[in-house]
Design goal:
The chain is mainly alpha-helical. It is built from 2 helices and no strands. The chain is globular. The chain starts with 12 loop residues before the first helix and ends in an 8-residue tail after the last helix.
């Protein structure tokens, strides 16, 4: 769950990293993460929306913390 932010789903690393590229590397306040592998999908794509909806419904099992 280190890559998921249930309080603010769209800021989750699992969503931010795949929509970023290496172009943002070294750009102050870019709001993007450097990602040498390139953009994997776009914000709003079916992949993005599927993971966003999963995060919004994700529940932490307190027994595993």
């Amino acid at each position: 769950m280190n890559v998921v932010d249930t309080a603010s789903p769209e800021t989750s690393l699992i969503l931010r990293k795949p929509i970023s590229s290496a172009d943002s590397e070294g750009v102050v306040n870019s709001g993007q993460l450097a990602h040498g592998g390139g953009v994997r999908w776009l914000k709003g794509s079916i992949e993005y929306e599927t993971i966003l909806q999963w995060i919004q419904g994700a529940k932490l099992d307190s027994a595993h913390q």
